[in-house]
Amino acid sequence: MNHKPIEGFSKLPKQGKIDWLVNEYLEGNQEYQNILKQYWNENADLQKLHEEFSENTISNFYMPYGIAPNFLIDGKLLALPMAVEESSVVAAASKAAKFWIDKGGFKTTIINTEKLGHTHFIFNVEPHKLLHFFNFSLKKKLLESTEEITANMRKRGGGILNISLVDKTAEMPNYYQLKASFDTVDSMGANFINSCLEQFGKTMRQEVATSEDFTQEEKNSLQIVMNILSNFTPDCIVRAEVSCKIEDLKDDSGISPEEFASKFKQAVTIAEIEPYRATTHNKGVMNGVDAVVIATGNDFRATEACAHAYAARDGQYRSLTHCTTDNGVFRFWIDLPISVGVVGGLTNLHPLVKFSLALLGKPSAQELMSILAVSGLAQNFAALRSLVTTGIQKGHMKMHLLNILNQLGATEEEKQHFVTYFKDKTVSHHEVINEFNRMREK
């Protein structure tokens, strides 16, 4: 090994962790200490709050926090908070919002809010015997045993919706599931769901042990493998859409509304049938979704996992968005499975998360689902609009221009020169370097 392992790293104070890292991995270079410390918050209490969000924290990692205004969603005008590091995401979302604001804006529908979790277990028993036990005894006991856990959630209108027994023995010997559905109202509900499921596992073990339905050998074969929620929530889903007459799709791209609608629909259809394109297509959707998910303190990894699983639900990976151009009407929509919360987690702790939720009018979880679907749809619309007209690089590289100039150490005066220089040109890294060198040689 090229470095020594360390015992008790988590028990070291923050400065001790930093000293060890710099000495062990960074040749004692104090510049790295300075980099970490310059991102500490001057407010010691706020810094401590951030450090306690996670483990072994030694600094904060900043992401740009931007605003995409002019989103007309279900008749309400909103400005969306977006935490994202990629150039052109906020600009593209804003441009799409502006395009649709005078065409009725975005409309959304909550299709369902059901979330899922499973107790996965191995049981060497005849399926019909287990099904009888579940229907006539176990299911009732599972619900009774979780009444204390679900009491507060039931008061808010949520709780356990259903529990079913799933036979998976054709795919794995003796493998079954207790599949439970939940309504967690305004919380994302991960802790609630997992607590219920863990109680299911305990209750099942107890009920099997005392049941007269099974032999001792069968009882001994029971293994509760795990109790865990699923981040695949195909029945917690929202639809966001835009529509207008094709003739109203006029813009400054230089192509007719009819040609634009035709090419746009073809682009979506390609993403519906071609996984290579669908992957990039959906990545663009998630640019918009994740930026707002992060800004509102939700779990973007869960959001990503669910969306991509849903995109492949029929065995082939496909577009999350869809388009029709029937009877002279352009319609573009997304059905997005997404599980988010506006209470619990970071929502009552992180100051910027609280700001984001206040900015959005303190939405319910369902309203936030709608906002996220709209953000993804807007981002996808903007990307496809560029792709079928001017091409993606013209706008993207203009946004990326400042990144290139900052890498080169350009002054503010030089940056302004480049903004003017590329006003009617497509930005390329090569051309920026050439013009920068030409300027510096003068």
Automatic annotation (TrEMBL):
Q: Which UniProt keywords apply?
A: NAD, Oxidoreductase
Gene Ontology BP term (one): coenzyme A metabolic process
Listed pathway(s): Metabolic intermediate metabolism; (R)-mevalonate degradation; (S)-3-hydroxy-3-methylglutaryl-CoA from (R)-mevalonate: step 1/1
Q: Which residues form a coiled coil?
A: none
What's the Enzyme Commission number for this chain?
1.1.1.88
Read off the CDD domains from this record.
Answer: HMG-CoA_reductase_classII
Cite the GO molecular-function annotations of the record: hydroxymethylglutaryl-CoA reductase (NADH) activity; hydroxymethylglutaryl-CoA reductase (NADPH) activity
Keyword Oxidoreductase part of the UniProt annotation: yes
Which Pfam families does the UniProt record give?
Answer: HMG-CoA_red
NAD as a keyword of this entry, yes or no, is yes
UniProt-listed InterPro entries? HMG_CoA_Rdtase (IPR002202), HMG_CoA_Rdtase_bac-typ (IPR004553), HMG_CoA_Rdtase_cat_sf (IPR023074), HMG_CoA_Rdtase_NAD(P)-bd_sf (IPR009023), HMG_CoA_Rdtase_sub-bd_dom_sf (IPR009029)
Per the UniProt entry, the signal peptide is none
Which PROSITE patterns does the entry mention? HMG_COA_REDUCTASE_4
Read off the Gene3D superfamilies from this record: 1.10.8.660, 3-hydroxy-3-methylglutaryl-coenzyme A Reductase, Chain A, domain 2
| Catalysis: reaction(s) | (R)-mevalonate + 2 NAD(+) + CoA = (3S)-3-hydroxy-3-methylglutaryl-CoA + 2 NADH + 2 H(+)
* Family to which the UniProt record says this protein belongs: Belongs to the HMG-CoA reductase family.
Protein name, per record? 3-hydroxy-3-methylglutaryl coenzyme A reductase
Species whose genome carries this gene = Chryseobacterium ureilyticum
The uppermost taxa in this organism's lineage are: Bacteria, Pseudomonadati, Bacteroidota, Flavobacteriia, Flavobacteriales
